[in-house]
Amino acid sequence: MLGHSHALSGLAAGAATLPWAPVGGTVGQVAWIAAVGGMAMLPDLDHSGSTVSDMWGPLTDVPSGAIGRLARGHRWGTHDAVLAPLVFGALALAAADAYWSSLLLLSLAIGLALRALHFVIPGRAENTVVGNLVLSWCGAWLLLEHTAQPGWLPWAVALGVLTHIGGDAITTQGVPVPLLWVVRRARVALTPMRTGTALETGVLVPAFVLATLWCVYLNTDVRGAVDPLLQALPGLSG
User: Fold this and answer.
1) Please, what is the average pLDDT of the chain?
2) pLDDT tens for each residue of 148-185
3) Residue of 46, 88, 90, 83 lying closest to 177 (CA atoms)
């Protein structure tokens, strides 16, 4: 799937899981949705030239090359539906207890979401290395200053990674057969859909947007603000 499709599917997954997310308050809910949406881009860190790899220049490109070699190439190790959520989640768990490592993880998630959704954001700052660094780190700092230490980050990372893998599994290139690919390289593809086709851009992308908005309406305080406005509309109040 395309980068913005992964990010949008991650945002939808984050909003849909709010009732079970280990977060509290509006700030925590925003952080959860942003983290899942951004981390839904993370598995492509195995591919040099991807949105993840290019986002912060050498700061992300160098680790991307190393991860690609460890993962045995694009859409292998980091796209294993069992290993990838466990490994990325475990790394996040190790980082979640410290402020600066939590800040890094949340900045990465926000930066990825900004890059993936640049087509709906005015200006181009989020597409530049310096602009993305400033926006993502400031956003992460603001969230951490107004919420408790994010011990929930490993869950958000694992959910985002799993959402990404699910998205790639419905494309023709598919994803590796969990665990078994280590012995014998084999993939599984659930549908014949190709990346970037009209089905993805014209059907799935709008569906992800609508699902995100609907779940935010259902699962946050937004509902209390929106309902009075809807009731004031002609034909809805009576």
Assistant:
1) 89
2) 778 899 999 999 999 999 999 999 999 999 999 999 99
3) 83
